[in-house]
Amino acid sequence: MCRHLAYVGPAEPLGGLLVAPPHALYRQSWAPRHQRHGTVNADGFGVGWYAEGDPVPARYRRAGPIWADQSFADLARVVRAGALLAAVRDATLAGADAEAAAAPFAAGAWLFSHNGAVGGWPGSLAPVAAALPPEELLSLEARNDSALVWALVLSRLRAGDDEGRALAETVLEVAAAAPASRLNLLLSNGTTVTATTWGDTLWYLTRPGAGGTVVASEPYDDDPGWQQVPDRTLLTATRTDVLLTPLKDPGEPAPADAVATEKEPRT
Fold it and tell me: What's its EC (predicted)?
């Protein structure tokens, strides 16, 4: 269900990351190579990017498939960014929220995407949703599982949690309420990328020549530098380093308190 990608590094055209590579997110919308659930990601797409000197990202989202949008092809060719987050969508359930249901979701400097599905949606998360302030529920951008997961993450961020703790604790809370869920979350603030693996694939690439770090559902080319992230892991990346921390099953100590088990320095 969905494919997504985030990048931090030297500025380059959006298309250099999303369209030009042989197995780019653009191609993954109809021919993903590592997708475990679903086959076509044609229920919408979106990209958010950070312009130099502006901490608040811009977004371009549509309800249809990315390959059918000629305006995006032009935009991706000329717009440059040093950080972005993009996704192509395979909807968990058909809905009427159009582009509002397409990632990335945004608030302030943050961009967010969810690759996966909440088991037993929507009833499974009714008790979890009830703990959110009413105004946050009424402000949901869409009526899908990803929008609610984003609301849970955002509530923690606004309460002062760092990005890693906000993602990790949201994953554990949702997994406890809906054990069949797949919860690969992706978050960027324009400087770092934070992600989780929980039931689906995630890879990363540190680029010694071109510079920067890419975190993606699957590799966009056959570069041998791509590294697969183990399932149930919290990833934190900058443009030079990647840190991996195991996520625990619900009921075990919070993973954000654990010591990171792997650091991938620039080589």
Answer: 3.5.1.118
DSSP state of 150: H
Specify the 3-state DSSP secondary structure of 247: coil
Give CA torsion, residues 165, 168, 173, 179, to 10 deg: 180
Name the H helices within the chain.
14-18, 25-28, 70-78, 126-130, 134-138, 145-158, 163-177
Q: Which residue has the tokens 């509530």?
A: 155
Q: Is the pLDDT of residue 169 over 70?
A: yes
Q: Is 127 annotated in the active site? A: no
Give the pLDDT band of residue 23 (cuts 50, 70, 90). Answer: very high
Question: 95-151, pLDDT tens digit by residue?
Answer: 557 789 999 999 999 999 999 999 999 999 999 999 999 999 999 999 899 999 999
236 in helix, strand or coil?
A: strand
- Report in angstroms the alpha-carbon separations of 52 from 9, 10, 15, 251, 252: 12, 11, 17, 42, 41
In the set 2, 142, 157, 247, the catalytic residue is: 2
Query: Domains of the chain, with CATH numbers?
Result: 3-264 (3.60.20.10)
What pLDDT band is residue 257 in, cutting at 50, 70 and 90?
very low
Q: Read off the tokens for 239.
A: 């443009």
